[in-house]
Amino acid sequence: MEFFTTYRNTLEATLNKLDLAKVEQAADWLREARDEGRQIFVCGNGGSAMTASHFVTDIVKGASFGRDKRFRAMALTDSLGTLTAYSNDVSYECVFVEQLKNFANPGDVVIAISGSGNSPNVLRALEYANSIGCKTIAMTGRDGGKLAPLAQVNILAAEPHMGRIEDVHMIVCHMLGYSFMDREMAKA
Question: How confident is the model at residue 186 (pLDDT cuts 50, 70, 90)?
């Protein structure tokens, strides 16, 4: 029981350190992107890839279905053929940036998720997104790594444990998605 209590208590402490003003800024940018018909791109590796896919599902279906204003979002992690072709033929570092070169435009939103903040393919994606005038958001852990200073908004899970970092990132994604599903439905 001690392990589970400690895990929960440490997760709660990490959540309590979360800068909600940055989460709100991210929600504002997502709302603007939706309202202006801009695209949202999300990427990450491993567990962060799954968080990216989950988040996109939540906003493309849950926050869009049956509504006049709909999200145009893509998880850059979801095209297995594209990912493996670039990985095999070029390098794994380019799997996200090359997709952005096909689809991203100035004013779009790019969300990069990395627990360590040091994934080379995620770093390249944010560097490119910044260079063309996208709005950039990072979700990082630990000290933010190299990714935090690249993002215009960095949402930090200030915790060394990867599981709890990923827990916080998923909770932030649910906060963002459900701010459109629950909060906006209450206003209607």
Answer: low
